[in-house]
Amino acid sequence: MKHAKRIAAGCVSLMLMAAAYLPSQVQAAGSYPLYRLYNPNTGEHFYTVFSNEKNSLIYNGWTYEGVGWNAPDEGWYVYRLYNPNTGDHHYTMDTDERDYLVRIGWRDEGTAFASPSLGWENTATAQGKPVYRLYNPNAAVGAHYYTTSAREVNALHRLGWRYEGIGWYAL
To answer: If 135 and its partner were Cys, which of 34, 109, 148, 162 is the partner (CB 3.0–4.6 Å)?
Structure first.
């Protein structure tokens, strides 16, 4: 009997661990959920398609805020950069912006995810829904925020954030 209970407990543990690595939201075919996390100590939002990265950050005190949007499994590159001086991350499709930030000390972490259309493409012809980019001029870390919600854009703009346009597109 004790042996059967141990096996049952082990199976439940394995199922819970496996569930942590599965997407928590239905995703479009040919896409990945893009997880959004928040660091309550720095104010930074972090975006990743990797569930193991998401789980590691949760373990280290970040707050999981759910799936921000779905990213296609192929398309135009969105790059992730890291500032080793502040611990901040930045996301951009613009290779000139990426290269400039690398020249002033940011680390290029490579392709973070993809976009079905270029961020500067007209919304009438672009595929997907826009992901808006905002900048907080009062923050040293977590200065940029990305969202598909026009309501969030308007609320943050009223609080002093600067709207920087469409960064890229999501599915």
So the answer is: 162
Write out the DSSP string of 28-39: -TTEEEEEEEE-
Dist CA 161 CA 146 (whole Å): 12
Query: Residue 52 has which token pair?
Result: 């193991």
Q: How far apart are CA 38 and CA 61, in angstroms?
A: 9
Is there a contact between 109 and 81 (Cβ–Cβ < 8 Å)?
Answer: yes
Distances from the Cα of 167 to the Cαs of 53, 60, 78, 79, 96, in angstroms? 23, 28, 9, 11, 14
pLDDT tens for 97-151 read: 999 999 999 999 999 999 999 999 988 999 999 999 999 999 988 899 999 999 9
Spell out the SS3 assignment of 116-171.
CCCCCCCCCCCCCEEEEEEECCCCCCCCEEEECCHHHHHHHHHCCCEEEEEEEEEC
Q: Could you tell me if 157 and 134 are in contact, meaning their C-beta atoms sit under 8 angstroms apart? A: yes
Look at residue 142 in the predicted model and tell me its pLDDT: 85
What does the radius of gyration of the chain's CA atoms come to, in whole angstroms?
18
> Cβ(34)–Cβ(170) under 8 Å?
yes
Give the contacts of 68 (CB within 8 A, at least 6 positions apart): 34, 35, 36, 47, 146, 147, 148, 170
